[in-house]
Structures are given as C-alpha cells and as structure tokens.
Amino acid sequence: MKLYLINLVQPLTLILIGTVSRTKSSPLTKRGPVCREIVVPVTITCDNAIVHPSIDVSSLMGLLSSVIGLGFGLTIQGTYQIRGTYCEPEVIVPSRSNTLQLLAHPATYDRNYWSPSYDGDRYSWVAVASKQGYPTFAYDRLGNGNSSRPDGVAVVQMPAQAATAHEMIKLARAGPAGGSPFPRAFNNIIHVGCSMGSLAANVLNVQYPDDVNATILTGFSKTWVNVIPGFTLTAGLIPAQLVQANKYGPLTQGYLLATSEAGVEYLLFYGPPGINYDPVFIHQDYLNRGTLTLGEAASAALIPTASRYKGSVFVITGQEDAVFCGSLGFIGSGPGNCGNGAWNV
C-alpha cells in the first residue's frame, strides 16, 4: 500500500492510504502508538430496507430488485456492543490531539485491516496516523469481527451502520464526563472508510450531516451496483456457517464468506503478484477474511447523495478498481475505469 500525506486547505490535516502499490515506512521512534481495547455500547433506532427474511445468496439480484421496489421502512431498534482498538499517538501534535480518526473497514475484513499483523508497520494506517499525531479508533462495524452480530438481512444494513457510527461519535465527543468509554472528549472527528466502510461513512453523512468534520473515502465511487452479481460469483460467496461451522455456525444465513482465494485476489489486488503486492500477504489476508451481509449489499444500492453534508471530503480510488468502477466483477471481464464516463469518481 502506498502512503500519502495530504495537506488540505481546511482546519484539519488528513492522512490518506491508497491500494495501488506499497512503500515501507520508517518509524520515527521505537515506542509506537499506545493502544487498548474499547467496548462501545450503542442503542440505535433506524429505518432499514424492507426485505424478505428467507432471502439467500442465490437470489441476491431478486433481493436487490425487491429492495429497490420497496425502499426503506423497516424500523429496527436494538442495543449492541461495538468493539474496537483505540490508540493514542506516539507523537504529540497539539493541534491534532483532539481530532479522532474513526476507521471503518471494508466488507470481509475487521478492524485489523487498518493495522494488519504482517511485516511490521508497512501496511498500517494506525502507525502512520500515530506518527502524525492523530489518535485513532479502528472498530469492528456492526455484524463484523468481535462486535455484535444480529440478523444479517434485516438488521445489518447501511442505515444501521450509520446509526451505530452516530452513537459512537456522540460518545467520542462527550468523553468520560458524558459516560463515554473513550478516555477523553474529542472536538473533531475524521471518518475514514474503505470500500464498504466508505459506503457506510457516506450513509452517515446522508443521515447525520453534522456528525463529522471531515470524511476520507477510499475504494469508493458513486456507481457500483452492477458489480454485485459478479463480485458474489467471483469471490464464491456462500453462507459463512456452511464454510466454517465452528466459527460462524450460530450466525444467520445472511452472513456470507468468500470461498475463492483466486477470486478475492482478482477483485481486491491490482497488478502482478510479487511486483505490485506480496503474494504471501494475499494468502494471509484470505485466511483471515471476514464476512459480508446480504443486508449491507442490498441496502447500499439505495443510498442517495449526501447533499446536506458540508464538511471536508477526500476521495481516493484505484484507477482500475474492479469492484467500484464499472467492471462486471467477473474474472476476464476487463478492468474497471475510475477516471472516465459514468464511473468517474
């Protein structure tokens, strides 16, 4: 992964990560960020998309059609636990110490996407943020990692992800005096997403346009629905409980797991292995893969433009992103094109 430091003409300085190539970062000190687990209890109410509870991956396009026809109107209420890793930076920069980077991972990943345990800090967003003086909170989005895993069709959808982030942001701004599990109160919030995490960040800006001061969307475009069937088949997505019963047996069939390592490599990595990316890394990445829910995939297709959001935005996407930029998502269907036409980000 190539690391970028972008200085915007805004009150905040934002750190960006791309996924086209990788460079090694040299640590400024040996101390590193000081990190600890945080459990954030959230109680949410949201309007999710109306879907049939018996839907499965074999009728995903039928699910999309039904959602597009029925829209949102399924009221969801619930209390959940969101788990994440909070890190204080190793470098103290007074102008950034009260700015929290809230990190939302892609589908099929968890919070460790932002600081994978491979080759030191080479692929770690958290390490780079720490060296620039930013505290971070990388969290397992609802339905992922060690966070609560409610129904994968009716509950774990984009509106629920936004409502969850909204409650976390309120607690991050309140600090301990407001009953928050965060160690201190933050004046500024930068919401950073990748892929499905970027979609979730954009939904937050639609529903709660005043929540964050800045948004970084990586692996993102405004058009991606056409790729869903190809993505599903290429990754070999099937109910996770059928693939790893010991780990995912208690989950509903709305939780999907990839079964094709070659397909995942095609969809998520660019260029020849050994040149553009480490083939050992892709194998470890696949072994540690997580889930995607049917509810997220379907509801993400309906999210409008965040026209009321007035904060800073930075979008960075690979030129040939196979998921978000017009490719059909099948191996051999050709690269995406993020720079021209309808898929120009």
Which range does the strand content fall in?
A: 15-25%
Main sheet makeup: 7 strands, mixed
**What is Rg?**
19 Å
| Count of alpha/pi helices | 10
CATH hierarchy: architecture: 3-Layer(aba) Sandwich
Query: What is the CATH first-level class name?
Result: Alpha Beta
* SSE run: EEEHEEHEHEHEHEHHEHHEHE
Terminal Cα span: 20 Å
CATH topology: Rossmann fold
Average pLDDT score: 85
Please provide the count of β strands: 12
The low-confidence runs, each spanning 5 or more residues with pLDDT under 50, are: 1-30
Instruction: Supply the number of structural domains.
Output: 1
Helix content: 10-25%
SS-based structural class?
A: alpha/beta
- What's the shape? globular
With strands numbered from the N-terminus, the spatial order across the biggest sheet is 3-4-6-5-7-8-12
Keywords: Signal
Signal peptide: 1-25
Organism: Diplocarpon coronariae
Protein name: Alpha/beta-hydrolase
Task: Summarize the structure in words.
With 345 residues, this protein is an alpha/beta fold. The chain has one domain (3-318): Rossmann fold (3-Layer(aba) Sandwich), CATH 3.40.50. The chain is 25% helix and 22% strand. It is built from ten helices and twelve strands. The chain has a seven-stranded mixed β-sheet. The chain has a three-stranded antiparallel β-sheet with strand order 9-10-11. Strands 1-2 form a two-stranded antiparallel ribbon. Helix 3 crosses helix 4 (196-207) and helix 5 (228-235) packs across helix 8 (261-268). The two termini are 20 Å apart. Residues 1-30 have low confidence and may be disordered.
